[in-house]
Each structure stands twice: as structure tokens, then as C-alpha cells.
Amino acid sequence: MAWGCALCLALAGGALLALLVQLLRWLRADGDLTLLWAERWGKKPEHELRGKVVWVTGASSGIGEELTYQLAKLGALLAISARREDELQRVKKKCLQISSLSENDILVLRLDLTDRSSHEAATNSVLKHFGKIDVLVNNGGRSQRSLFVDTNLDVYNAIIELNYLGTISLTKYVLNHMVQRKKGKIVTVSSVMGIMGAPLATGYCASKHALQGFFNSLRTELTDYPEISIIQICPGPVQSQIIQNVFTENLAKSIENSGDQSHKMPTDRCARLTLVSVANDVKEAWISDHPYLAVCYLWQYAPTWAWWLMNKMGKRRIQNFKSGIDADASYSRKKK
User: What does the UniProt keyword field contain (predicted)?
Assistant: First the structure.
């Protein structure tokens, strides 16, 4: 009897210790625990993506630009797209400097996601150049900083056209090719705003929720193609140029002051975790520091608490915005 009690106590102690370890990992985490497990124990991007043909949209700045650099260093063959061809040429030049890729290994392809009539021809251009597309990274899009009551409805139309309809249009043409090959990866850079709701981004949140719903549904339509992966990346605040290019209350107005971005996750860290997700076919990856990471978990498992917390955070977010500082400045972890 005593031996049995001791064993039970030992098992309970072990379980408590394991729980504490997981709690400590979570408190220090900058991604969901499934993703961080894959980063430590899973497949490495260096092995999985070398020699693969990867098409990155929104590659002229921010997360897309950094993804392009890291993919070049890994030895992936690249098609890079955005509206600004001069910026794409700059990105290509740097890729050639930091990698062993040759001129022909990187295709610069100007692309406007809102011009859906051009997407089939663009897909064919990539296929003509490389013969295949292994990975599509849907990264193009714009965020928003405006209150709903102040915002013209044509802004919402523009957000949906770019972030949602443009993305699924390009996906349709690339997916046709992947279905023929019976393999490939569709990677979409969504946002933690596709999981929760937040002020100053009603249209942006709506577009990202639409992407989440679309790709979760699309995944269920592809069960006959087990080697086609649908991967959704949900970053929180990241150091990038996204704030400088946000939608505001009308289409003609740009944001006056993007504020200090140093408190946000470094872009290279976000890109690295994205590539880990791609290498390991993580269906949905949350890439964020706290408190947004905590809110993702709350929204998933305790939505009533999440609503309460987002009301508190949202009030501060609006105050920050009206004061001319970054909306997320006061509760994001400062980066050294």
C-alpha cells in the first residue's frame, strides 16, 4: 500500500513538473508550442526547401522581403512578386550577393493582386521559367489603421479586393498546377487578427478572418491530395513597413506617423518561424510575443476572457493611435 502511494505521488509530482516546464516555455514563447516543438525537433528548412521553387508575393518589403533573403540562403529557386519592380530588382540583387544562386535562379515578376485578370498569365510565366511551383507564399496585402465610424466604405472594398480576393484568385491558378502534380504547399501569411478582433483594423480583421475560413475549408476539399499542404501563418506585431502602407479612413490618405516599431518581433525571427512551419507542414502557426500570443490561446479556449482582455487592450490601442504613437507600443515586449 505504501509503495503504491509513493508511486502515485511520484507520478503526480512528475506531471506537475511537466506542467510547470510547459508553463515556463509558454511564458517565454514567441510562437505557439506546436510550432516551437517543430523548430527544435522537427524537419529543418535547410533540408526541406533547398532546390524547391518558391513563389513569394509581397516580396519587395517587410516579411516577404526577409523570407526571400532567407530562402535564397537556403538555396531555394525564387519567383518574387510585388507591384514595384524596381524594389524587386533591389531584393534580387541582394539575394545574389548573399547566396550561391545564379541570375536565372530568381525570377522577378511584377504582380498586382487586385488585377485578377493577370493572375493566370503570371502563373504561366513562373511555370515557363521553372517548370513547376513547389511552394506559393501568399504574402501580399495591406493593414489598416482607422476607426469604423470614420472610414469610407470604399476602403473596405479595397481591403477585401487586395487581401482576400486577390489572394484566393492567385491561389486558384497555382493550385490547379499542384493538383495536376498531386503535391505542393500553399502558404498564406494571415495574421493573429484573423483569429481575434481588434480596434482600428475592422476591415483588415475581416479580410484575415475570410482567409482563415477559406483556407480551412479548402484544406477539407483536398483530402484526396495528401501531399498538398495548406499552411496558414498568423504573425502578431512585427518590425516591418506594413504600418507605413496601411489603409486609413479614406483611400487618398496615408498614415502621418508610423511610430517606433522597435518593440515588435524582429522580421528575421518571424520569417524563420514561417519557414519552420512550411518545412513541417504546420497547418496554422501563431507567431507572436505576448500579450497577443496569450490572447490567441484565450480566443481559442476561453473566448469570454479573451473578449474582456481585448476590450482592455483595445481601449489602450485607440488611445495610443490618437496620441500619435504605435497602436501596440504600451503592451508589447521591448526588444533589445
Answer: Oxidoreductase
